[in-house]
TrEMBL record:
This is Protein kinase domain-containing protein. Signal peptide: none annotated. ATP binds at residue 35. It comes from Coccomyxa viridis. Residues 7-295 form the Protein kinase domain.
Length: 295
């Protein structure tokens, strides 16, 4: 638990749905990323941050963003949110402090490459994907369902540099546990309805919540793999209504005809409509490893 006054603001890094993220410096941890409540965001954010930090704190894997602690309000602030956090804590939680990922989010890099009409060759693409798969497999082993997997929530340790063949492929880490659920603590189908981001959501979230399981993340991962291939955003020109209709009929984004057969196989097996038949992360990681070895 670190007081806000002990983190120096250096620069803004980005903002998501719920938080503003900025780069800070702390005497103990050095450079850190701090996610704080967006101004004007409703009460309950403190609770959400606490929950998100708690979720992250129990996790430790090279492909999962590391959390250092929660940031609490300056010492002058009273214990006004005592009790609302579901935990005995003396000051309001205003943010989460995590490791800083210098490469930023995968979505930024995909947009940059699209703008410059570049594509990611299959070998580095498979390497990036394998990081995400390993992080996700770890989460599922820990009984955590992420529920919001998308390129924005995958962070890179260094920038993606495809022009220099000697430049190593960045390490990818799964981030943003704001919507995550612990399978053993919550009966998953009870707690959610259309949880996640529409174009990445598995069909069972819209059609049969009794089938909702960690396999929702595998569907989303398929959409991420599709985006790494095409550099387009899924269902780019569709309205939310059209996307929802597609979701109910388990319609994934279209696989382009030029897609390598190996990659098409990956996409198809992530997009199996029946979650029970949807491929395992083990199958994905073995297939990706084979691609890396062969190309
Ligand atoms: P939200 O829950 O509001 O979506 P995120 O945790 O996804 O917030 O963070 C929003 C954005 O901020 C990310 O998409 C990324 O661009 C940036 N960001 C978040 N955490 C870090 C980090 N540790 N290092 C660098 N950039 C980050
Ligand atoms: Mg996010
Ligand atoms: Mg979030």
């Amino acid at each position: 638990r670190v007081p806000l006054s002990e983190v120096t603001h250096l620069q803004d890094l980005g903002c998501g749905t719920f938080g503003n993220v900025w780069l800070g410096h702390n005497a103990t941890f050095g450079k850190v990323a701090v996610k704080t409540v967006k101004p004007g965001n409703k009460a309950g954010s403190a609770h959400n941050f606490w929950r998100e930090a708690e979720m992250l704190a129990s996790l430790n894997h090279p492909n999962v963003l590391r959390v250092y602690g929660v940031v609490v309000d300056s010492p002058t602030a009273g214990p006004d949110s005592l009790g609302t956090l579901g935990s005995p804590i003396d000051r309001p939680v205003v943010g989460i402090m995590t490791e800083y990922m210098r490469g930023g989010s995968l979505s930024t890099h995909l947009a940059y490459l699209a703008q410059h009409r570049m594509f990611i060759p299959m070998a580095p693409r498979a390497e990036l994907a394998l990081h995400a798969v390993k992080g996700l497999a770890y989460l599922h082993d820990m009984n955590v369902v992420h529920f919001d997997l998308k390129p924005e929530n995958l962070l890179l340790d260094t920038p993606l540099n495809l022009l220099d063949p000697n430049y190593p492929v960045p390490v990818v880490k799964v981030a943003d546990f704001g919507l995550s659920k612990h399978k053993l603590k919550h009966h998953v189908p009870d707690v959610l309805n259309l949880r996640g981001t529409l174009p990445y959501m598995a069909p069972e979230l819209a059609t049969n919540s009794l089938c909702v399981s960690e396999k929702v993340d595998v569907w989303s991962l398929g959409v991420v793999l599709w985006e790494m291939l095409t550099l387009q955003t899924p269902f780019g020109d569709c309205t939310p209504q059209e996307i929802l209709a597609g979701l109910m009929s388990a319609r994934p984004p279209e696989i382009p005809s030029w897609c390598e057969p190996e990659w098409a196989h990956l996409l198809e097996c992530c997009w199996e409509p029946n979650p029970q038949n949807r491929c395992s992360l083990r199958h994905l990681s073995e297939t990706l490893q084979r691609i890396i070895d062969e190309y």
